[in-house]
Amino acid sequence: MTAQIPASEPSRLKTEEDLDRASAIMRTAVTYTSINGAINGAWRAEHTGNSTVAEIVIEGMSERRDAALRRLTRLMRKASKVRTVELWSLASLADVVMDQSGDEESGRNLREFEIAFLRSLFRLVERDCESRERSA
Fold first, then answer.
1. Contact 58/46 with Cβ under 8 angstroms?
2. Would the CA dihedral through 22, 27, 30, 31 be positive or negative?
3. Which pLDDT belongs to residue 102?
4. Are 108 and 65 a contacting pair, CB within 8 Å?
5. Per-residue pLDDT tens for 46-74?
6. CA 67 to CA 60: how far, in whole Å?
7. Model's pTM, two decimal places?
8. Which of these, 11, 55, 76, 102, has the minimum number of CB atoms within 10 Å of its CB?
9. pLDDT beneath 70, residues of the chain
10. Are 54 and 41 in contact (CB under 8 A)?
11. How far from chain centre, in Å, is Cα 4?
12. Nearest alpha carbon to residue 70 among 37, 39, 38, 32
């Protein structure tokens, strides 16, 4: 059983789109990405003279973004199986986490929970590879 899909509704999940919508990993990854986009927009506003509004947005949204990343870390640790699209999504998200400042160097300043996210992703990929190898 995949940890991200509710056990009570597998018969109703027929299409890939339905599976994506039911996936807690996909929903949380989209939440993180959306919040990150809002923060980036506020950062641009701050540097064009709208600093008061931008500070409020950045402050409130940063906590939500960090909470989404922590939730993703927990979901990955619990997952016994993942779909390829989920791994692909998480790999793309890892690139965003590594490059928060947009300078390709910001990976040096990762916080503990961001490092935990990346480690959990590596372990999830490892478990997925082992599972695929055993079933081959």
1. yes
2. positive
3. 55
4. no
5. 666 667 777 777 788 889 999 999 999 99
6. 11
7. 0.75
8. 11
9. 1-13, 43-50, 101-107
10. no
11. 14
12. 32
From the number of C-beta atoms within 10 Å of its C-beta (0-12, 13-18, 19+), residue 118 rates as: middle
> In this predicted structure, what is the pLDDT of residue 15?
81
One-letter amino acid of 60? G
Please give the Cα distance from 17 to 50 (Å, whole number).
39
State both tokens at 33.
Answer: 């990405």
Residue type, 110: L
Instruction: State CA 53 to chain mean position distance.
Output: 26
Handedness of CA 70, 38, 92, 24 (dihedral sign): positive
Residue 82 is encoded by which pair of tokens? 């993942």
CA–CA distances in Å: residue 49 to residues 62, 96, 105, 113: 20, 26, 27, 32
